[in-house]
Amino acid sequence: MDITQLILDDHHEQRRLFAILEQIDRRETGVLSAIWDRLAAFLELHAQAEEEIFYPALLQVGIAARRAAGVEAETIDAVHDHNEIRDAVADVARHRVGSDDWYTTVAAANTANSDHMAEEEREGLTDFRRLAGLSHRHRLAVAFAAYEARNYAGVRPVDKDPVGYVRAAEKELRTTASGSLSVGTLKRARPGGPADPACRADGSGSDA
What is the pLDDT averaged over residues 61-88? Predict the structure, then answer.
């Protein structure tokens, strides 16, 4: 298993569920509601799993490879995107299922999520495949799959301060002064989980 592939699989399922919503008659509100509820819960679970397991690991391998500034920026952007997706999902709940406003807010959630997935696939996932070896990615995949399985019914949506999130991850990951993240770059970043035990720097390094 590879955590980057598990994340891509989740992305595919999210795209599939959004596409299904577009193909159901708007009068079938019970079906629309059931599928949306599943998708909304899945979006939050996926985001939380990434924040608990993937992003701390991305930060760690980036620091080890002396690419702290790049992975900091990617992680701050990603957590900011997650907040936007959570807010968009919450907005959907304010409208009657099948109404014009409901479809408009679902489309906004789809756009926010699609933009996030495209950026993550282009940046964070690509960088992690280059920086982390396959055995490390496998261990993280096991942790990621277990987290989603244990929380299959959903998790409580909570917005996070992107810079505060990275600073907390820095505190968890720091082992030497030279390995800490750059606070200066964080201060210049745009405003807006603990590291998994398997996230160890000794698993980093390209397997190419």
Answer: 94
